[in-house]
Write a structure and sequence with these properties.
Number of helices: 1
Largest sheet: 9 strands, mixed
Strand order of the largest sheet: 3-6-9-12-15-18-21-23-24
Structural class: mainly beta
Strand content: 35-45%
Radius of gyration: 18 Å
Shape: globular
Number of strands: 24
Order of helices and strands: HEEEEEEEEEEEEEEEEEEEEEEEE
Distance between the termini: 35 Å
Helix content: under 10%
């Protein structure tokens, strides 16, 4: 058993470092692969003190992990998978953290700027064409020239299912065991658990529910 584990770890390391398999530009920043496997992914870190960490048994294909700034972190916990997802941090002191057993099933863009955080809980399921943004990228000003659109954190609880074409705006927190329906635009936090959330802007449309990835 020890031999098998040793060979699996060695295999993961070889796969991740093959030049034709992934494009990796660390520029002195820290990348920890753990026992995870990346295929046809791009990792690009510009700046200082950045860390990208993959834990055990995670897998990613055709994904981008991009950091442009200093002292940022992308941390992926155990048994996470992704395909065609993009994890993007700009500016300094930001973080994207994904807890174990969460799966990204299609094109997804997680954008974290201005030192904010995106936190995603355990056992979540993301469909495709999903956008998270902690900020607006540009400044909105009042008539005195003061900025009025600061960036804010995004937090997703445990066991949350997010459907196709969903947008999660800055400052949003979603409670556990919720399902967000297709095309929803979530502009405000919903802290309650066990709901179906849908609409533009999104709101609770059904309470006392849960979901399962199996077709029962």
């Amino acid at each position: 058993m020890k031999f098998i584990k040793k060979m699996a770890l060695k295999f993961c390391g070889i796969i991740n470092k093959l030049p034709f398999n992934n494009k990796i530009y660390r520029r002195g920043n820290k990348i920890i692969f753990g026992k995870s496997v990346l295929v046809k992914c791009r990792i690009d870190c510009k700046g200082k003190g950045n860390v990208i960490e993959f834990s055990q048994n995670s897998s990613f294909r055709n994904c981008n992990f991009l950091i442009y700034g200093n002292d940022n972190i992308i941390r992926i916990d155990d048994n996470v998978s992704g395909k065609n997802a993009e994890f993007y941090i700009e500016d300094n002191g930001g973080a994207i953290v994904v807890k174990e057993a969460t799966h990204f099933c299609g094109k997804i863009h997680l954008a974290c700027i201005e030192g904010c955080q995106i936190q995603i809980g355990k056992d979540c399921l993301f469909s495709s064409d999903i956008i998270f943004r902690t900020g607006d990228s540009h400044s909105l000003l009042d008539m005195d020239g003061n900025r009025i659109n600061p960036s804010k954190n995004i937090k997703i609880g445990n066991h949350v299912w997010i459907g196709n074409h969903v947008i999660i705006n800055k400052g949003v927190t979603i409670g556990d065991n919720n399902m967000i329906g297709t095309g929803a635009v979530v502009t405000k936090s919903i802290l309650e658990s066990n709901n179906v959330i849908a609409g533009v802007p999104a709101k609770i449309v059904k309470r006392n529910t849960n979901w399962c990835s199996k077709r029962l």
